[in-house]
Automatic annotation (TrEMBL):
Organism: Nonomuraea helvata
Annotated protein name in UniProt: dTDP-4-dehydrorhamnose 3,5-epimerase family protein
Taxonomy, superkingdom: Bacteria
Family annotation (InterPro entries): RmlC-like (IPR000888), RmlC-like_jellyroll (IPR014710), RmlC_Cupin_sf (IPR011051)
Family: Belongs to the dTDP-4-dehydrorhamnose 3,5-epimerase family.
One Pfam family of this chain: dTDP_sugar_isom
Length: 199
C-alpha cells in the first residue's frame, strides 16, 4: 500500500494494490504495517463504521470535531466517484487553513485518513456514490461542528459544472470567520494529544 502525506499535516492518502483476476478483484483497504510506517501509529480504535449514498452534486461537509473528544476518520469510496476535500482548521497547526483534495472512486480504491480537528467534505461526482467511513468516536451531534463549504474565504475547489446539493444544516453552517469569532475552531495541541493517546 502506497501512502502520501497531504498538504494538511497529519492527513494521508493511501493507495492499496488491487489484484484482479477472472473472478473479479481483491483489495486490502487497510494494512496495519503500512499505516504505522506512514503515521507512526496503527489505525485509531474504531468506534463507528458508517456509510453514505449520494447522488451527483451532493456536498457533505465541511464537518469537524474539536478535541476533546476529537474524531479521526478513515474514508474511502466503495462505489461511484467523489472529490474529497481536507481542510486544516486546527489553530496553531503549521498547515493551518491549507486545503487539499483527493479523488476517490470505487474502482481506484484510494482512502484518506484525517486526524482529529481536520475539516472534511466531499462532493459526489456520480449518482449512487457510496462513501464508507471508519470513525474513532461514535457520532454525537453536539460534538460535530460544520463550516460553510461555500465560504469564499476558504475557497474550496468545488467543481464548477455541478450545482451543490446541501443539507439544511450544511447550508446554514457558519463561515470560517464566524466560527473563529465564536471560538469554535479546534486547538492543534488538544487534537495532537488525542492522536498521541493511540500510540
Amino acid at each position: 500500500m502506497l501512502s502520501r502525506e497531504l498538504e494538511v499535516r497529519g492527513a494521508f492518502a493511501f493507495q492499496p494494490t488491487a489484484y484482479p483476476d477472472e473472478r473479479g478483484e481483491f483489495v486490502t483497504a487497510y494494512q496495519r504495517a503500512d499505516f504505522v510506517a506512514a503515521l507512526g501509529h496503527p489505525l485509531f480504535p474504531v468506534a463507528q463504521a458508517s456509510q453514505s449514498t449520494s447522488r451527483r452534486g451532493v456536498v457533505r461537509g465541511l464537518h469537524y470535531t474539536p478535541a476533546p473528544p476529537g474524531t479521526a476518520k478513515y474514508v474511502r469510496c466503495v462505489r461511484g466517484r467523489a472529490l474529497d476535500l481536507v481542510v486544516d482548521l486546527r489553530l496553531g497547526s503549521p498547515t493551518f487553513r491549507r486545503v487539499d483534495q483527493v479523488e476517490l472512486s470505487g474502482s481506484g480504491h484510494c482512502a484518506v485518513y484525517l486526524p482529529p480537528g481536520v475539516g472534511h467534505a466531499f462532493v459526489a461526482l456520480e449518482d449512487d456514490t457510496i462513501i464508507s467511513y471508519l470513525l474513532s468516536e461514535e457520532y454525537e451531534p453536539r460534538n460535530e461542528l460544520a463550516l460553510s463549504v461555500l465560504d469564499p474565504e476558504l475557497g474550496l475547489p468545488l467543481p464548477r459544472d455541478l450545482e451543490p446539493v446541501l443539507s439544511e444544516r450544511d447550508r446554514a453552517a457558519p463561515t470560517f470567520a464566524q466560527a473563529a469569532e465564536r471560538g469554535l475552531l479546534p486547538d492543534h495541541a488538544a487534537c495532537e494529544a488525542v492522536r498521541h493517546a493511540w500510540s
